[in-house]
């Protein structure tokens, strides 16, 4: 895996040496006061719409799946966009010109295969053999990506194994990949550089509950 390529890009964005606050899409995310003063905010898929509603400003990084509808968050506002895509960066950059957004300063792509390899490398788990889909959700994958690149620490917010639906819409879709996410989160809980702001998630997985 060409992690150095991504490390260089994150360095250019100024977030390689900063702790990350990963903002997932579960309803009612817990954001402790002042946490974004010293953490880079990493939005997952369309959670930037929730951040916009909360008045949090531009994301430092957005970790986005190819299939997520752009119409759910047409005001995407981010310094960096890491797009999970099967095509090379030049092609993704061309497609981006036809996607609604407010500001995207820099673009990189990550193939689904590399995404899964990173998760397995960081957890030493055969994730492809776990659960129905054999892959974690994007928020968990983003945490593994950050760890693989060497960021100092990861804090998970807006991540849930029980709450259905998303913070940015009213569709109330059932949460998927619960078995995969739980297995990987329990593996990450053994580390001292991953925590969560969500008390319920900490209790379910053994992750450290983040406190200022």
Main β-sheet description? 8 strands, parallel
The counted number of beta strands is 8
Q: Give the mean pLDDT.
A: 91
Level of helix content? 25-40%
Low-pLDDT sequence parts? none
Structural shape: globular
Strand content: 15-25%
Computed over alpha carbons, the radius of gyration is 16 Å
Structural class by SSE content: alpha/beta
In DSSP terms (H or I, runs of 4 or more residues), the helix count works out at 7
Helices and strands, in order, run as HEEHEEHEHHEHEHE
Number of domains: 1
Biggest sheet: strand arrangement: 5-4-3-2-1-6-7-8
How far is the N terminus from the C terminus? Answer: 35 Å
Task: Give a brief rundown of this model.
With 212 residues, this protein is of the alpha/beta class.
């Amino acid at each position: 895996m060409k992690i150095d390529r991504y490390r260089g890009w994150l360095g250019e964005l100024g977030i390689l040496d900063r702790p990350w606050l990963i903002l997932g899409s579960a309803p009612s995310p817990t954001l402790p006061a002042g946490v974004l003063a010293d953490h880079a905010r990493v939005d997952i898929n369309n959670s930037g719409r929730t951040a916009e509603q909360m008045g949090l400003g531009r994301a430092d990084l957005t970790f986005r799946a190819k299939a997520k509808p752009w119409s759910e968050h047409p005001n995407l506002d981010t310094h960096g966009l890491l797009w999970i895509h099967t095509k090379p960066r030049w092609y993704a950059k061309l497609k981006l010109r036809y996607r609604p957004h407010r500001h995207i300063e820099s673009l990189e792509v990550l193939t689904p295969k590399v995404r899964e390899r990173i998760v397995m490398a960081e957890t030493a788990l055969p994730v492809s053999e776990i659960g129905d889909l054999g892959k974690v959700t994007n928020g968990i994958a983003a945490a593994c990506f950050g760890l693989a690149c060497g960021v100092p620490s990861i804090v998970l917010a807006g991540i849930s194994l029980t709450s259905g639906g998303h913070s940015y819409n009213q569709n109330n879709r059932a949460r998927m990949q619960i078995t995969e996410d739980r297995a990987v989160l329990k593996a990450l809980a053994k580390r001292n550089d991953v925590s969560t702001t969500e008390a319920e998630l900490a209790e379910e997985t053994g992750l450290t509950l983040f406190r200022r």
